[in-house]
Amino acid sequence: MEKISRVAALGAGPGGLAVAAALSRRGYEVALYNRTPGRLEAAQKRGGVEIEGDLGEELVPIKRITTDLGEAVRGAQLILLAVPAYGQLPTAEALLPHLQKGQTLLLLCGSAGSLEVGRRLRGAGFSLDDVLLGETVTLPQSARMVGEAKIRIRLPSRVRTAAFPGRNTERLAETLGDTLKIRPKPNVLDPGLNNPNFMIHPGPMLTNYAAIERAEGRFSIMNEGMTPGTLRLLDAIDAEKMALQQALGLEVVPIDDLYRENGSGPHIYRSPGEPFGLRDRIWDRYVAEDVPYGTVMYSSLGDLLGVPTPASDSTNTILSVLDQTDYWAQGRTVEKLGLAGLTREQVSAYLETGERP
Predict the structure, then answer these.
(1) With 70 as the cut, is the pLDDT of residue 262 above it?
(2) Torsion of CA 143, 144, 147, 148, to 10 degrees
(3) pTM of whole model > 0.70?
(4) pLDDT score for 157
(5) What is the 3-state secondary structure (H, E, C) of the chain?
(6) Is the pLDDT reported for residue 342 higher than 70?
(7) Do 211 and 186 belong to one domain?
(8) 72 and 47 share a domain?
């Protein structure tokens, strides 16, 4: 098996910049792509990405920085989709004309998006053996923007990763080698359900909504937002996630353990302080992404599997009212994931084989 040396990072947010810089400084030939040129201007001007934090402080050159998707992925052995959940399908659909058999497509912080992307690949005539498809639970490097094309990086340990279908997970791990530090898991609902943002953001955003409005977003959800009552809602949503894991025969993992295995710990949200040494700020994505692609997904899976999810259901409904947005309609439901109408046993078989009964 040819060792990976050429990588395309799609998306120039903090996650995309961080993974492009981390791999480039290790000697990989990296192409950094973003759809809009504004996100790339500073990096193009510098010829790379400035970093600080766990990897040191330096300017890391990036070989190609481009808005041309075809140029970015041409010859890439590994394509890393480092875009928000709502950008996964549009980016994957734009990628289809340029995708080649033998390439590996990995969704960073996939949120079960590989199930949707897999359906699009098949619709375009690819088999799920032609293109090796998978996702991670979170980003390989935690990152925050601290300036134009400058990021502060913190490294997690090994991130939960699986392929769709699950029978390809071992092959995915072998293909990635030491490119990324991963924990192989049986199927993509393991990383998909365990995205910590789904517990950390929707419930706490709901209970702090008025305070956030009054502060015009200048509010630290990870510090002043984590009151005892807010943490009780966070833990209730986490308990629903764990009930879903139990119903699916997956490893049952509390959020505190997720943070520990990613190189951090529950002190990040259960004790005062700022995880990056920066005053946190509110991003629209804390609701606009983590509700439809997180707690709505929990609710939809709960309906399918007969698992009650009242805390997630209420959070989805009330935040839809507050934001005047139908997050239920936007959400990543079992219909969109290709799981509708399946029994628990059939869901597990589909995740493993990629074939519906």
Answers:
(1) yes
(2) 60
(3) yes
(4) 75
(5) CCCCCEEEEECCCHHHHHHHHHHHCCCCEEEEECCCHHHCHHHHHHCEEEEEECCCCEEEECCEEECCHHHHHCCCCEEEECCCHHHHHHHHHHHHHHCCCCCEEEECCCCCHHHHHHHHHHHCCCCCCCCEEEEECCCCCEEEEEECCEEEEECCCCEEEEECCHHHHHHHHHHHCCCCCEEECCCCHHHHHCCCHHHHCHHHHHHCHHHHHHCCCCCCCCCCCCCHHHHHHHHHHHHHHHHHHHHCCCCCCCHHHHHHHCCCCCHHHHCCCCCCCCCCCCCCHHHHCCHHHHHHHHHHHHHHHCCCCHHHHHHHHHHHHHHCCCHHHHCCCHHHHCCCCCCHHHHHHHHHHCCCC
(6) yes
(7) no
(8) yes
Instruction: Give residue 97's identity as a one-letter amino acid code.
Output: P
Range of the domain at 231: 197-348
Q: Is the model's pLDDT at 277 over the cut of 60?
A: no
87 with 234, same domain: the answer is no
Question: Do 210 and 302 have their domain in common?
Answer: yes
**Domain finish residue from 167, 193, 219:** 193
Residue 11 is assigned to a structural domain of this protein: yes
pLDDT reported for residue 313: 98
Cβ–Cβ under 8 Å, residues 62 and 18: no
Look at residues 193, 221, 237 and tell me which one is the last residue of a structural domain: 193
Bridging pattern class, strands 64-66 and 29-33: parallel
> pLDDT of 202-259, one tens digit each?
999 999 999 999 989 888 888 889 999 999 999 999 999 999 999 999 999 999 999 9
Per residue in 74-121, pLDDT tens?
A: 999 999 999 999 999 999 999 999 999 999 999 999 999 999 999 999
Residues 143 and 229 in one domain: no
How many Cβ atoms sit within 10 Å of the Cβ of residue 239? 15
- Please give the single-letter amino acid code of residue 189: L
* Count of structural domains, the chain: 2
Q: What's the pLDDT at 218?
A: 86
